[in-house]
Amino acid sequence: MLKRLAEFRTFDWERFADGKTFVTSGVRPWFEFRDGHRTDNRLGTSVEVVILHDHTKYRDRDGERVSNRFEKLVFKVPLVIDIPVDAQVVPVDVVATVYGEFQNQLAVKCARIDEVKKPAAS
């Protein structure tokens, strides 16, 4: 039996994120965990987002239409940042990994998060 095949699976973040709008729903410190316990070592910031719009084109299977609208993700950033709730954001330099028993969860780390500024009202 072959071993460690999962190391060669990649996730196409760019394709997944195409057509999606991410809006923050929470911001908290990201701490290191060892042996299931949180340490005092702060690694950065965890930014929880909701997918507000999902215009991604998914492959059709048996006529089923799918969307990830209103699903939540957590972007882990190795920086101490402060982003307001309800801000539209774009993660930069993303490394995403699929995990979970049913391979339906996504761990997302990124170098930084850019806030999309709304145009000033005229």
Structure, described:
The chain has a single domain, classed as Beta Barrel (OB fold (Dihydrolipoamide Acetyltransferase, E2P)), CATH 2.40.50. The protein has one helix and five strands; from the N terminus they run H-E-E-E-E-E. Strands 1-2-3-5-4 form a five-stranded mixed barrel. Strand 4 and strand 5 form a beta hairpin.
Q: SSE order, as H and E?
A: HEEEEE
Our Rg estimate from Cα atoms comes to 17 Å
Give the percentage of residues in beta strands: over 45%
CATH topology: the name is OB fold (Dihydrolipoamide Acetyltransferase, E2P)
Instruction: Count every helix, treating DSSP H or I runs of 4 or more residues as helices.
Output: 1
Query: What is the SS-derived class?
Result: mainly beta
Count of the separate structural domains:
1
Low-confidence stretches: none
Give the integer mean of the pLDDT values.
Answer: 93
C-alpha termini separation:
65 Å
Task: Give me the secondary-structure topology.
Elements: H1 13-17, E1 20-34, E2 37-54, E3 72-77, E4 88-99, E5 105-115
Parallel strand pairs: 3-5
Antiparallel strand pairs: 1-2, 1-4, 2-3, 4-5
